[in-house]
Amino acid sequence: MRKWQSIWVTGAVSLALLLGACRQAQAPADTTQAPAPATADATSATTAPTATPGADPLPSWRDGKNKQDILAFVKAATTEGGPGFIPPEARVATFDNDGTLWAEQPIVQLQFVLQRVAELAKQKPELAKDPAVKAVLDQNLDFFRDKDGEKHLMKLLALTSTGLSPADFEAAVKAFFAEAKHPKLNVPYKQTTYKPMVELLQYLRANGFQTWILSGGGIDFMRPIAESFYGIPPQQVIGSTGEYDVKLQDGKLAINKAAKVALINDHEGKVAGILTHIGKVPVFAAGNERSAGDIAQLTYSQTSPYPSFQLMVNHDDGEREFAYDEKDGASLAAAKANNWHVVSIRDDWVEVYAGP
Amino acid sequence: MRKWQSIWVTGAVSLALLLGACRQAQAPADTTQAPAPATADATSATTAPTATPGADPLPSWRDGKNKQDILAFVKAATTEGGPGFIPPEARVATFDNDGTLWAEQPIVQLQFVLQRVAELAKQKPELAKDPAVKAVLDQNLDFFRDKDGEKHLMKLLALTSTGLSPADFEAAVKAFFAEAKHPKLNVPYKQTTYKPMVELLQYLRANGFQTWILSGGGIDFMRPIAESFYGIPPQQVIGSTGEYDVKLQDGKLAINKAAKVALINDHEGKVAGILTHIGKVPVFAAGNERSAGDIAQLTYSQTSPYPSFQLMVNHDDGEREFAYDEKDGASLAAAKANNWHVVSIRDDWVEVYAGP
Hints:
The structure is a homodimer. Chain A is α/β, with parallel strands linked by helices. Chain A has one domain: Rossmann fold. Chain A is 38% helix and 15% strand. Chain A has twelve helices and seven strands. In chain A, strand 5, helix 10 and strand 6 form a beta-alpha-beta unit. The relative contact order of chain A is 0.19. Chains A, B: This is Haloacid dehalogenase-like hydrolase. Chains A, B: InterPro entries: HAD-like_sf (IPR036412), HAD_sf (IPR023214). Chains A, B: One of its GO terms (molecular function) is hydrolase activity.
C-alpha cells in the first residue's frame, strides 16, 4: 500500500513557495474587478441556468481553443442521443482549490495556521518556549527550511487544529476569513478566487454537473467558505481529513478534531478522496501545475467510460498573478502526453480575480 | 481518542443474531406485495414531487401519531416564515440501512462474504485448509461463536474484499444481488426493503431534503445498489470504509481496496461518518433498535439548531418481519429519554416489504 506523504511535505513545499514566490512574483496590476456571483445553489446537480439565454457563459475567458473546447464538451454532454452525451448522474466535476480556484501564493491555510499559532501564544505565553512557535512569533520562517522543518510544522498543525470541536474550528475559520487579507494583493481572500473558474463552476452546474472541491487543503478549512466563495456546499468538499474523536456518554456527545490523519488529499490521495466521497469517476477534472498534485486526479478522470475533460491551469502570468513552474515540469509533461487542456492565465483569461 | 470497535465486533453480533433470530422468528406471512417505485432522482435536493397532489405521500403508514408527526414536521420545515422552517441547504436526512431500510435477519453483507468465501475456495482449494474457510464450507457457523470467532471473521473479510479494484468489487456486489435470495423470505433482497421507508425517503426528497444512507455496512457494498433500491446516489452513501491503495506509475493508475480500516460507521463512528462526508448536522435521522448502533446519530441530529426529527424502528412484528430486542434495551431507553419517535413495525406499517 502506498504510504501517503505527510500533509506537511505538502506544507513544507507550500511554505518554500510562500517564502520564495512572493519575492519573485509581482503583485497583480489590477485587483478591483467585477464581483463574482458565486451564489448558485449547488446542492442540486440540476441547478437552473443563471445566465441570460444566448449570453456568453464564460465572459472572463478569451476566445480560443480552450474556451471553445469547454463549450463544445458541455454542449455534447447535454445533447441527448448525441455521441458525447453524459447522463446527468455521471456529470461529476472535481476541482483542486489552491492554484486552481484561488491564488496559492501564499497558501491561504498556512496563513491561517501561522495566525492561530500567534493567537494561541498570546493565550498561553509558555508556548513561546517551543522553538517552532517562537519562530512564528519572530516571523523567522527560515526556521522551517531546515531538515527538521517538517517536524516543526507538524507540531504547529497539531497545536492549532486538534482538540477543538468541529463547530469551534468552523467559527475560527470564519473569523479568519472575515478579517484576513492577502498579504500582497491587500484584498480579502474571497477576492483572490479566479473569476474565470467561478464562471466555469456556474456554467457546469447550469448544465447539470455536480461540482466538487478536491483540495489538498483541509476539508474543515474549506467547507465553511466553499458555498459563499464557489457555490459548493460542504458535502461536496473533499480535502485532507483528520479523524474525529467522538464520545457518547450519559446521553451526551463530545466531539473533537483528533490529531490522527485519515486522508492526505493530494497526489494519489486525491483519487482515494474521490473513491471515499463520490464513488464515481469524474468526467471533468481541473487542477494546476504546481507540485504534480493533480496528475493522479486528471489521469483518473480520463478512465471514465464517458467522454471526459481534463484542465490544468498554468501559472504563467507574472503581471496579473504569480509566475512559477515545477522544477521537473511533471504536470505539463503529463498534460502533453495525455492531451489535457493547459489553461494559460496570461493568454486564456480576460480577467483573473473575482474581485469585490 | 475513542478506538473504533472492529467491524467484526459488529459482524460477530450480526452473526449471532443471524444464527439465533432465524430460529426464533417466524417467516412473514405475505411477501408478495406491491412494488416500490424507488427510482426518484436523488442527486438533487429539490427533486419534484412524484406523488399526485393531495394524495397520501405515505400510504404504507397507518394513521397515528408517528405518521401525523412526520407529515407535520415536513410541512413545517417547508413553510417559509413559519416557526418550523428549515432552509433547503440544511434539509439533510440520514438513514441507517440494516434493520431500518431493509430486513437485517440475516445481515445481507454477511451472506455476501460467506458466499464469496465459498467461491474463492472453489478457485483455490488450498484455502480450505484455513479452519475459518473450512467452517464456512461446512456451514458450521457455530465455529465463529467462540472467543476467536472475531479473529476468524476478520480474516474472511480481508480475504474477500481486499486486493480487488473498486470496479471488480462493484461487479461482484452487483452479481450477488442479481442472483441472491433472502434465505427465509425466498425473494431477491431488493424486495426485502421496507416499503414505508422507501416512501418516506421519496417524500422527504420531494420536499427538498437530501437523503443519505448511514450504514454500518461497507460503503462499497451499499453504493452499487443504493440508487436502484432507494433512489440514493453513490455519493450520498456513508458506510464502513477501508483505505484505498492507489499507485500512479508511468502514467497508469493501479487502484485496489486495502485491508486497512478507515472508518467503522457504527455507534459513535456514525457521527464521524457524518462529519467526514456531510459536514452538516442532519435534521432527520432514522435508525433501529438493534445493538445500540444508532443512538449516537440520533443524539447528534438533535443538536441541530433547526427543528429535527428522530425515528427509531422497533422490530416487534414476528408475524410479518422478525421480532427481536436488545438485551439491555439501550436504544428504546434512549428514545424514551429523548422523545424520539419509536416506529412499531406491527402497529405503524400497513405493509412491510417493497415486494417485486
